[in-house]
């Protein structure tokens, strides 16, 4: 593991720990102020889901692509045609994601 990767990992872990503490303190302050705890819990859940949505989408795309590879060629053998298919599918997914992203503006 390189020092840059280690530093990025450390920054990510420390910022996550700080954000958890801030979220807990905000939740306690809101419920002490009379806000319904159920509402506070759902707001925290929805904010967390928005943060993790890109990661979840990438994970689901990877699992789906693995399923396609399993259907196309069962086993772990690699051929030049399968490698071409892999790069073509990655380019197609980038195209779809980029056009969807640009059409939202």
Biggest sheet features: none
Rg is 21 Å
Outline: elongated
Number of strands: 0
Structural class determined from secondary elements? mainly alpha
Low-pLDDT runs: none
Strand content: under 5%
- End-to-end CA span: 39 Å
Helix tally?
A: 3
Helical residues, percent: over 70%
**How many separate domains?**
1
Question: What would the average pLDDT be, to the nearest integer?
Answer: 78
Protein name: EamA-like transporter family protein
Keywords: Membrane, Transmembrane, Transmembrane helix
Transmembrane segments: 7-27, 47-72
Features:
about 100 residues, about 85% helix, 3 helices, transmembrane helix, mainly alpha, membrane
Provide a short characterization of the protein structure:
The protein has 105 residues and is mainly α.
Fold and architecture overview:
There is one protein chain. The protein has 105 residues and is mainly α. The chain has one domain (2-102). The protein contains three helices and no strands. The protein has helices at residues 3-32, 37-72, 80-103. α1 (3-32) runs antiparallel to α2. The longest helix has 36 residues, at 37-72. The radius of gyration is 21 Å and the shape is elongated. The two termini are 39 Å apart.
What secondary-structure arrangement, pairings included, does this model have?
Elements: H1 3-32, H2 37-72, H3 80-103
Helix pairs in contact: 1-2
